[in-house]
Amino acid sequence: MAYYELPFSEVQDVITRLGYKLPANYFTSNLRFYLDRTTHGSTLSRIVYSVLDEMDGSMDQSWQLFSTALFSDYYDIQGGTTAEGIHLGVMGATLQIETGCYGGVRLESNEVSINPHLPQNWQKISFKQAYRGINYQFEITHHDVTVAADAGTHVKVAGKDYSLTKNKAATISYK
């Protein structure tokens, strides 16, 4: 769960500072161990595992878990709870997977970083987000990020810094 909440490198730093030396494949092994034992009594568990599977490069598994969570209320997979109302937490979390996980847009500290990992069956994703008083527009494909902002600012795409001019879209290739 720590990897879901915090940047991967930050969790790695904590583990290292605590003096632990983990095997090279520990993340995958640990993820598979717990996923095989999780009953998904909460639809939110699919959200967490979807993100972790994307981080681990298991896009098929990530997509399956994401899709199940996305349609959980529609198909009433919890067996009668939809009549009581939709699960807004899951609906919001699926949007976070679309924009933050698959779209790769992370809003961390003072920085907007973009590291896309779109599912193969998507051509692109387009969305708007506001962060620190700036409104951003994103269009992300498998090769390019087009981003515009209503103020001059900076973004980081695939680890490289780019300056944005107010109200002028910039298209940046990341592959």
TrEMBL record:
Cite the PANTHER family for this sequence: GLYCOSYL HYDROLASE-RELATED (PTHR11051), PROTEIN-GLUCOSYLGALACTOSYLHYDROXYLYSINE GLUCOSIDASE (PTHR11051:SF8)
SUPFAM superfamilies, alphabetized? Six-hairpin glycosidases
Q: Where is the Glycoside hydrolase family 65 central catalytic domain?
A: 18-96
Protein name per its UniProtKB record:
Trehalose 6-phosphate phosphorylase
- Glycoside hydrolase family 65 C-terminal domain residues: 106-164
Question: Which Gene3D superfamilies does the record match to this protein?
Answer: 1.50.10.10, Maltose phosphorylase, domain 3 (2.60.420.10)
- Pfam name, any one: Glyco_hydro_65m
GO terms, molecular function: hydrolase activity, hydrolyzing O-glycosyl compounds
> Which Gene Ontology BP terms does the record give?
carbohydrate metabolic process
Species per Swiss-Prot/TrEMBL record: Lentilactobacillus farraginis DSM 18382 = JCM 14108
